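For the sake of transparency, this paper describes our internal protein records without simplification. Such a record has a labelled line for the sequence and another for the backbone structure tokens. Nothing more is needed to write down the fold, since each code stands for a local backbone conformation. For reference, a complete record is included directly beneath this paragraph.
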Amino acid sequence: YLALSYCWGTQNTLKSHLQLNKSTLAELKTSINTNKIAITLQEALRATYTLRYRFIWIDALCIIQGDENDWQTESASISRIYASATITLVPAAIESCDEGFLDRTIPPLLLVSFRSSHRPDLTGNFYLQATNADTHITEWNKRGWTFQELLESRRLLYFSKTMLHYSCQTVVRVESREEATSATEGFYTPWAWTHKELGVSAWFGAVREYSGRLLSNPSDKLPAISARAHDIAAQSQSQYLAGLWRDSLVLGLLWYCVDPQVDKYDSDT
């Protein structure tokens, strides 16, 4: 099966479309009227069929919205769901579920004139094409939950405004280039935070990235990175202490806020 990692938009955006809740549960068990779901979800289904898969996991259709008990149960399994998916689809170019992502445009080319310093008579032009701006500098890359989905997924297929990007633990491929690059050298390097030999030190790199991301619900701060903590705990055998590690407690306390405007949130103890 596939999984979808995407931006909902505002809290009310997805609510204006058909989604799973207590009132639609019986209906959705029978069939799904695809014309009533958000355009992002419609195109995710099209992509699933095109890739010849039968199933895709989408939170809005697989978690009962507005049901706290179901959320507590399902949120504990989200990391496993993404880790077990064959491919995670990432509509990286969109900012809300009201947008489509399958149509792409030809990226602009930057013309750079060239004259050889060794042979002044040799002149020409280079055409440069940005391959990561529309995947890295995106709303999707600013969200807290998508960070965990990024790290847990085995394979990621990014739909940017201009081209497809594919990433796994081994290689990164971009639609505009024939050759593949190493996963540690590409436009995304999530695997740098998963190497077993790094142990707890991998946590600090992950937290540095994660802490700059946004969450609609401040109470999701620890749950949205809990899978990474669980993985590192299994690798390092260190004790996890709500965002810190016993073996590196002093180092973990050496933090500071880049932005002083931080929402205060006290986790349940």
Notes: The CA atoms of residues 63 and 72 lie 10 Å apart.
